[in-house]
Amino acid sequence: MYEKNGGKRARHAWTDSAKSIGALSYIAVQCFEQIPSRQRRFLAMECAATHTTLFALLPSSMFLCVVPQGSFHWPSPNHPIELNQGPFDDIFQALLMEKDVVSKAVQGLLKPQSHKSYPETDANFHNADD
Fold it and tell me: Has this prediction a pTM greater than 0.85?
């Protein structure tokens, strides 16, 4: 994980812990893909050119949460990861059911915005107070 230290000329530096996910500027992540026939199982992705495990450095605008260590079971790097039943699996299942909506939302967030325009709003979106 990387975070920006305070100050005008602050730089991004590696950290092993953060007080909140909002304090992070980048996270180095290992990439996994879901096994189609298994809802809660994922295999590590491999770089086609080098045949090595695929990692990515994600900016803060591209991650939703950090998966807690106890939320999955991974016997070894050669085996699939399996999400344990519990809160994170519930979150994943809810996101999976809304995959198309989440994908469109992420594409919209990643699209460059001009300073004069505002993001489109969904007529079906309601405030929690409604």
Answer: no
